[in-house]
Amino acid sequence: MTKKYGVGIIGAGWVAGEYVKAFRDHPLTQVVGMYNKTPEKATRLMKSHSVDGKEFNSVDALLDDKGIDIVVHCAHADTRAEYISRAALSGRHVVIEKPASTSPEGVAQIVEAVTKAGVKSIVSCVLRWNPQFQTIRALIDDGKLGSLIYAEGDYWHPIIKAYPGYPYYMKKISGGSSFTVAGVHAADTLRWLAGEVVEVAAFSAGPIMNKDYEYPPVSVAALKFANGAVGKLSSVIEGETPYIFNMRLFGSTLSIDNNRIHSSKWYPGTLGYYEFPTVKPDSGDVSHHPFVPEIAHFMECIENDVESHASIYDIRKTMALCFAIDESAAKGGQPVKVKLD
After folding, report:
1. Same domain for 159 and 265?
2. How many separate domains does the chain show?
3. Domain around 95
4. Looking at the DSSP assignment, which residues form a beta bridge with residue 296?
5. pLDDT tens, 148-205?
6. 58 and 110 fall within a common domain
7. Which are the contacts of 58, defined by CB distance < 8 A and separation ≥ 6?
8. Whole-angstrom Cα distance, residue 19 to residue 97?
């Protein structure tokens, strides 16, 4: 009989339900149970998705359960480094919600624990599995883009009080910054598609409308890429706008504007951009995000003993980019090197 991997989930908030469904439906996994600091919330969530799992009364109890092989952390980010490190050092593979941490020290702690334990990790920068970006990645891998000239990404999604995690998103300790709490998606997707950013110069603003923010909710950064190209990243989580996620890459032989492409080399006679139909990153609803293919990919990594392209070893560089943007903005736009090493 094929081994089933037992899954323990820390946190029973909005995104936790997507992990419950993904692991419930994967043929190699079963949800053993969950812990949430609010009693009975984990039980209600599991039952709502037809899962008969345990509700643990503490993280210690969850980690003491020998039937758990994979630990998912989707509780508040300020506890992520501690609990993920403990899970890894206990021999469990780990699934880490974004951001990996709200501090460089937290990321370093996770890297150290995962390395020491030799377990597999994945950070849920889940838009890497969005069909639009999968298509763009394939075009780049096929050599269609040529040499990168310019790239930009935008995450525009005001955080409203109706969101379950609103009080925690507002706090410096658990939200961190505009880029760690939200704009990390744009930073990671741009890195994955365009390559490493080595230097940034950033500014931030606000709050203007919503004084609940303990940090500036608007941030924009000029970028210098390793190959000499330049670009821009912005994260806007205050304001009056629907969810918008922009991604644009301009190369020597192809240009990409979200789900539109243009190339006189590859498509002779083209006068403008043409649109390819796809599933776009056009909603902040977690049920719209591709957790199922992410988890399927992670299980393949575990089974085949290979590292994910979204392991903590790679996503630490996304976090380093976010931290560099925050540092530059705090210094009034002073250029800051991204600490990729």
Report:
1. yes
2. 2
3. 5-125+291-311
4. none
5. 999 999 999 999 888 878 999 999 999 999 999 999 999 999 999 999 999 999 999 9
6. yes
7. 35
8. 10
